[in-house]
Amino acid sequence: VDTPSRTRVAILGCTGSIGTQALDVCKQHSDKLEVVALSAHSRTENLVHFAHEFAVRHVAVTSEAHRGDAVLSELPSACELHTGSRCAEELVELEDVDVVLVAIVGAAGLSVSHAVLKSGKRLALANKESLVVGGDLLMPMVQPGQMLPVDSEHCAIFQCLLGENPREAHCIWLTCSGGPFYGRSLDELADVTRHDALAHPTWNMGAKITVDSATLMNKGLERIEAMHLFGMDIDRIKVLIQRESKIHSMVEFEDGSVMAHLGASDMRIPIQYAFSYPERWSTPAPRVDFREIAQLTFGAPDMESFRCLKLAEIAAKQGGTLPCVLNAANEIAVDAFLHDACTFTGIADIVEACMDEHDCQKVVSFEQLSDVDAWAREQARGIISSRF
Ligand code: NAD
Ligand code: MG
């Protein structure tokens, strides 16, 4: 039944890890959430399946190569198919959409996040790359309460800051599982394979972010994301190894008080919060019995072995277009690693070489970012074909 009070949701990147978990949240809270629009890049069979399951009115296929997939003829008759270079943005602009979850992977999410902010609708942001690349342009557009971070650490920090004066926050402790190669030296990282890297201890995620979690580039990107979201200097965003992934991050205030966010390691919780805020709805995940957690362990990250973390810090400090180069080069390098076209430690080499070659500029426009992104990808491809 149609109740006008339901929040109408668009999920962009619905076939991915975050996208499918978001659909699960929508199913569990179908009295409060209505899925009205979905996008997918390639897995059109899954898209068609979800369109039926949720009686969705609009779908978009973002990849040119999949717009003609035969399975798309099986979409529900009331469902409109959007194609073309702006099809994801078209879903954002639909009159019957209230909230947009950007669960697209990579810098491809930037133009969509921009469109959501421009529309005035709520942006549930999983796509951290949007802020890493375009934070300077996006943040000034954000209206109070408009952007809800889905990244678990940032959702945690957001909650720790509720009701507080942000100027009284002394620092952020950004927690990090350490990834599958925690404790290894740079030498011991040299022969890591794609298979090793894809076996992440805690979260079940898309391939790109899983590799980023193994190189710790993910944590580097998250520091830049936090810098933009919470307007804090990068030196005050400290990475804390928390092996059990039970503390999702902490905020330390001027008076020495530290607020932490704890709970199950389940992305459906932050996804749901981005939809429910400022309300809290019943949990989609099993609750944690803290009596059964033997210990919580802490440590400092090893920036010498995990060089991507250091490179992200350099990019954050320099600012301008350098984070865009870091991100684009990393996307190409990770893709190469996933196709056995470069080594694990080669990822940092490629990113560093691209950063070294870049003539950093102040960020002035989305067109400029798109040009810099394209330049960095070309540069990275050249390095891969000449060195690996
Ligand atoms: P994924 O690879 O599982 O899914 C990516 C989705 O984006 C798919 O639906 C795919 O069809 C779509 N997509 C891929 N390329 C695209 C393009 N060029 N244009 C438009 N759509 C495209 O990735 P994921 O793990 O779900 O991650 C999605 C985003 O959420 C990433 O930015 C990631 O950093 C962030 N995130 C993920 C997790 C997690 O637990 N998976 C946690 C925090 C943040
Ligand atoms: Mg995270």
From TrEMBL:
Sorted alphabetically, the Gene Ontology BP terms of this entry are:
isopentenyl diphosphate biosynthetic process, methylerythritol 4-phosphate pathway involved in terpenoid biosynthetic process
Q: Superkingdom, according to UniProt?
A: Bacteria
Binding of 1-deoxy-D-xylulose 5-phosphate, residues: K128, S152, E153, S177, H200, S213, N218, K219, E222
Per the database record, which ranges form the DXP reductoisomerase C-terminal domain?
262-378
Catalyzed chemical reaction(s): 2-C-methyl-D-erythritol 4-phosphate + NADP(+) = 1-deoxy-D-xylulose 5-phosphate + NADPH + H(+)
Cofactor needs: Mg(2+); Mn(2+)
**Amino-acid positions noted as binding Mn(2+) in the UniProt annotation, renumbered to this chain:** D151, E153, E222
InterPro entries, per database record: DXP_reductoisomerase (IPR003821), DXP_reductoisomerase_C (IPR013644), DXP_reductoisomerase_N (IPR013512), DXPR_C (IPR026877), DXPR_C_sf (IPR036169), NAD(P)-bd_dom_sf (IPR036291)
EC numbers: 1.1.1.267
Stretches assigned to the 1-deoxy-D-xylulose 5-phosphate reductoisomerase N-terminal domain: 9-135
Q: Which residues hold NADPH? A: T15, G16, S17, I18, N127, E129, G206
Q: Does the keyword Manganese apply?
A: yes
Q: Where is the 1-deoxy-D-xylulose 5-phosphate reductoisomerase C-terminal domain?
A: 147-230
Pathway the protein takes part in: Isoprenoid biosynthesis; isopentenyl diphosphate biosynthesis via DXP pathway; isopentenyl diphosphate from 1-deoxy-D-xylulose 5-phosphate: step 1/6
Keywords attached to this entry? Isomerase, Isoprene biosynthesis, Magnesium, Manganese, Metal-binding, NADP, Oxidoreductase
Molecular function per GO = 1-deoxy-D-xylulose-5-phosphate reductoisomerase activity; isomerase activity; manganese ion binding; NADPH binding
Q: What class of enzyme is it?
A: oxidoreductase
Family from the record? Belongs to the DXR family.
Q: What does this protein do?
A: Catalyzes the NADPH-dependent rearrangement and reduction of 1-deoxy-D-xylulose-5-phosphate (DXP) to 2-C-methyl-D-erythritol 4-phosphate (MEP).
The record's NCBIfam families line, in alphabetical order, gives: Dxr
**Name the record gives this protein:** 1-deoxy-D-xylulose 5-phosphate reductoisomerase
Q: Which organism is it from?
A: Collinsella intestinalis
Q: Which gene encodes it?
A: dxr
